[in-house]
Amino acid sequence: MHPSELLFWGILSFLVGIAVASLGWSILALAGIAGIAGTCAVILNKSISPHRYIFIFFAFAFLGTFYFNAYLNFESYKQAIIFDKKISFSGIIFEAPRRFERYQYFDVRLLAPYAGKVRIISSPAIEFKYGDAIEAAGSIEAQDSPATPPISSFPEIKIIAEHRGFWLKGMLLEFKSRLVGRIIEFLPTNEGALLAGITLGDRSHITSDFKTQMATSGTTHLVALSGYNIAIIAIVVSQLFGNFVSRRKNFYLTNLLILAFVAMVGADPSVVRAALMAFLVLLAREVGRIYDIKNAIAVAGGIMVLVNPTSLVYDVGFQLSFASLLGIVYLSPAIATFFKLADDASSWKQNAITTLSAQLAVVPIVLNSFGKVSLLAIVANVLILEFMPLTMFFGFVLAGLANISSYVGFIVAKTVQPLLAYEVWVIQTFSAISIPIQIQFSLWVSLLYYVGLAFVCVAIKNGNMPSPQKGNDQKK
Questions:
Q1: Is the predicted pLDDT of residue 267 greater than 90, yes or no?
Q2: Residue range of the domain that includes 351
Q3: Any idea where this protein resides (predicted)?
């Protein structure tokens, strides 16, 4: 087996081991997965020896199960918390607080005599910031999911000091907060909240009604800064740059824009992860052959899971980002080949294929996590994504120039407002005419769904699935 193949299958087996440990499955389940995976691997690659593959699978899978349990034990060892009893504790906020209409939450790293991390849910009346040192009194409850830190709901709380976090991250988050404030100042409620979300990933100003409308229309990802969102935006921006510069310069300019975007929104871990996903999508398109990128995807996924192994099964954001990445990288070119679309096809067709690929890749995750998905989501997304680069451009211009001149900010806001009004209209319209699918996928049905997508991609690549365009040509 070639070293690159060993790396790919080794990481994949390691991830399977972590998934099995996360779900609490037995060794029999691991053996069953090994048999299924070995059969699929041999079908897809005749040169693979099934005995050698199964040995590699078990070796790396057991390593994955061992690492997951070792990680949980280490995290438990670092934790010193009294649960289900009112106590007084202090700590430092180490991530940017998430603010909503009726509440906010933030993660705190506890100070002596306690140790560990606690998520505090509190009233939005007090504005907490990254780096604030707080004192609180209340009970702390352990959570069933190992990915969720213990939670203290609405404790008595006060700020005792500021700027106790990393100074650079604090500066970036304060800068982002000022930019968001300028956007909100010059635009109506929904339009301002949408632009702040699209441009800077801020969702604190989205009303509950508009949030429901976005969820119903399948457009929530536009303000979520997931790998799906940033990857699609990166592709659209790449297509825009492609009209003016060479392919290589286009690749570097788009990635530079992604880096600037990550810095502007405060380099949140989920945004860094999403940006990495977007980079891999662009790299796959730059290389031009999807199999040249599989090891890069495997290594990136392996590193992210190595940092936090609970994310593989318990972090929906990670699952959506990774699934959409795989959909865009592998399913998108297969769909384009199936429909005989050239690389220079019109942008709305490319946006439609990209959106459809990502949507198909996340269907089981969305249904199992949120209960429903809209059949018309792809239409709503295509209608909005066509104008996304222009919207983001005006968003950055407004956020930047409004800090220099309120008069200029007012002019830019009035320029972009009709565009935002159209996008809000699309969201509200497709929320009203939504055709929801409400099906619960079991884990095994979800696995069969993804195996089916993989075989469809392989069949199209090998020319075993006739294109409808070819059928039309034969009729003529």
A1: no
A2: 175-461
A3: Cell membrane
